[in-house]
Please model this.
Amino acid sequence: MLFPDYVFETSWEVCNKVGGIYAVLSTRAKTIQEKIKDHVIFIGPDCWNDKPCPFFKEDDNLFATWRKEALREGLKIKVGRWTIPGEPIAILVDFRPFMSQKDQLYGQLWEDFKVDSLHAYGDYDDSLMFSYGAGKVVESFYRANIPSDKKVIFHVNEWQTGAAALYIQKVLPQIATVFTTHATGIGRSIAGNGKPLYDYLDAYNGDQMAAELNMQSKHSVEKQTAQYVDCFTTVSDITARECKELLDKPVDVVLPNGFEDDFVPKGQQFTVKRREARKALLHVANALTGCEFSDDTIIISTSGRYEFRNKGIDVFVDAMNRLRLSGQLTRNVVAFIEVPGWVKGPRKDLQDRLKSGMVYNIPLPNPVLTHDLYNEDNDQVLGMLRWLGITNAPSDKVKVIFVPSYLIGNDGILNKPYYDVILGNDLCVFPSYYEPWGYTPLEAVAFKVPSITTDLAGFGLWANKEKGGNEYSKIEDGVEVIHRTDSNYNDVADSIRDVILRFASKDRKQTNECRQKAGSLSKKALWSKFFRYYEEAYDFALRKAEVRNSAK
Model:
């Protein structure tokens, strides 16, 4: 198989922790860095202006001569290393200077690739200008530093960077291009707008739905990138079907998302960090609700992007309510919703209680929320809690706490990064309706936290495949996969309740067996096992580029 001498990879989430793609790239980086040391270069947006990026360490000595040349070419960049395992080289691009050329660039995109930018709005302009800047960086670096006989891959992720691949395809056809859509824009939008995606997928027309949902420009750049690149990929079989139907282009290779367990503490450190996480979570629960929680309290969480229906946040809240009303629990449950909202800042009254270190027996006002929000009256999670009557009353065996902040260690309440918080859970629940892969359950099981997900998530389908036969994976296997369709919401909520009740009845030995099974399952999804799919995609793209260039 052909393997590249250099790999450039770009995403809006390089050194920019805003979603699941950050986890994909940051955990995979070490594997490819070990294969082609410092010949993998990640390109991300410089969203930080004059502030330091917390995920990036600038290095003035890296490519010092080329940096001066790039500056003369009008490229405002920072060069350094992404502060993740493997510490790969990263280049941050200031895309704002390209805004003055926006109309000209959009016109050229239409002329060259029929990308329709007429209906652009929202984050389209920022994304496309960054995409153009990333393409210019690759072009400049290639011409200055890479011999023409070297095999080069340019890998772009999501519609936000598709135009970069199209640009490179035009100006440097000798570079092989790979495009990964982690979720089609139209599929996500259909699901997010409450329309049934799966029952009618074969009947949907992507272009028609783009017009209906005001997604024409984003859909256009995604669809045209899929058509033109050397290798079009996605992350699961379920999304591959979506690509074929909505983008009119079957994928060339499926690239399942792996994990790198460098993030997982080992031995005694694991035990200590888990104990600290549980202590911190229960301390917040006590300070907020005024209830005391013993160490046998079951800590549950859901997390991810704030997509209320797509991520199954609605079902999670409903399932916690059904668990609360079941009357069958003998142990307390504290369920955290760790989903970033429109956060104003940490609650001062809660901060004061946490600093005192005291144990409280009187709740704070609104004891379901850890941070102040700008939109508390309109927030979907808070609205559903109010509608269901979840108030964290002292008599309730189930308490639900909304943590609407990014957990990167400075949220003002937990003050721990997400990977340190997840250790404290006994169980994680991710009942997704739309989930091309599902990084959150994979992360959870990597930290030996048994999880619940659905068969509408790529990870859930993979877990079932690992179980083998026609049986669904169970919590005793480390992951419970629940069957989900367009129309069985109530069944899913009841199933989650029932799995938690089953889990809560287990003794310590049985619980530990579930935890060990979860950890063992995660080992099968390490990048060392999954990187072979990337090798297949690289080979596919390089051979396609060879054919293209030999025809000239």
The radius of gyration is 24 Å. The chain has a mean pLDDT of 96. Residues 527-550 form the longest helix (24 residues).
